[in-house]
Amino acid sequence: MEIFTVIPRSSSAVECEPVVLRQNKTTRLVFKPLLVNNPNDARLAVKGCLVFQRKGKNDEWEDHNELHLSRLRAGEWVKIDLSTEEVITLIRHIAGLYRLHQKHGLPNKKLHFLKLESNAAPSEIAQFDFERLLEVARRTGVEIFAQFVEWAADLDNTAAVLSQLRRLNAATLRQIGSLVGISALRSVLEEWNNNKDNRNEEYWQDTLEENAFVLSQVFSFPVVIIRGKAYVGGKMLDNTGGNIADYLGRNPLTRNAVLIEIKTPQTKLLGRRYRGGLYSPSEELAGAIAQVLNYRYSLMTSFHGVRQGYEDFIDVFHPHCLVIAGHAETQLGDSERRKSFELFRCSQKDVVVITYDELFSKIEMLLSALEGEKRPNEE
Fold it and tell me: Alpha-carbon distance 333 to 353, whole Å?
């Protein structure tokens, strides 16, 4: 298997990578295919030429000087013998080009395709071949492994995918799970590192919803997000008002509700300096705590009305409340500020307050632990 590249040269012609039919250390015979728009018969879309090439000074293949057939004298001719293996290689490749043209027409931009031998047994695709493929993919910018995973995820027949996964041994499945987990953690950390200064609350709500596993790092139990922008009751008799929580989640084991209020890393944690070297909590932080507590009260008093359709899915025994706001490292630069923040935070018996850098530090620690487990298997 290999990466195959096509490059448009005009609106009616697409250059394809040469097909190597014969090769030694210094010379090779290739077929140079060209996908074309045939005005006479659209089905006839492949043409090309056979070319002898020689390695140049920089180890790059260069065409031999062309021999013009019109200059041949009487009794002279050109003959190129092809072995049976070379003929079948040429036929298969041309057939693949026709399939490509039938599906994609003439590509209008540079594309990379993965070419597999249709009759190759799985055992014939060696680990070396796969490693070489990944290296080629890295150099050409082809996200080949990601594409495989996306293809598998998009298949309608998920049973077929599960059937193939069941054939893998437990150690391989654990390794795949570890790789996927590490990839997800790295991705969300990159998102954090690139957007620490982002003041858009909607952005952080969307980001944490897409990476809900991050929220489970706050509690000592798993958290599943039921929905964002969740109505939690509070409408008046005239059907006005109503409380909309950023996130309504639950513990999947006990079904107890979790209410989450999302601010931004730029949300201020502390307000003005008070007596005795202490600082009051900021208006934004105090407001977020009051808001999530109000959501909790509203949910508990209106639960029988708003739980319709979720009767066997969520309960409100004692809903947990979480506020994510601010950036400790940049806002709590001295001991007085750190003390003021911790005294206030730790006094909130019904609300967990965590800063963004604390939250993502937990992710970094988890990533380090997973990579530490994985590293011995790689050596």
Answer: 18
Neighbours of 174 (CB within 10 A): 14
pLDDT for res 213: 80
| Residue 229 pLDDT class (50, 70, 90 cuts) | confident
- Reference 224, options 247, 207, 201; nearest CA is 247
The Cα-based distances of 13 to 29, 196, 226, 321 in angstroms read 23, 47, 52, 62
pTM exceeds cut of 0.85: no
* Beta strand segments in 75-210, E: 111-115
Beta bridge partners of 224: 250
How far apart (Å, rounded) are the C-alpha atoms in residues 114 and 104? 14
Write the Ramachandran bin of 70: left for phi over 0, alpha for psi from -120 to 50, otherwise beta.
alpha
* Cβ within 8 Å of residue 254, ≥6 positions away: 221, 315, 317
- 284 and 271 in contact (C-beta within 8 Å)? no
Residues ≥6 apart with Cβ < 8 Å to 286:
none
- pLDDT per position as a tens digit, 88-106: 989 988 988 888 888 878 8
Is the pLDDT score of 141 beyond 60? no
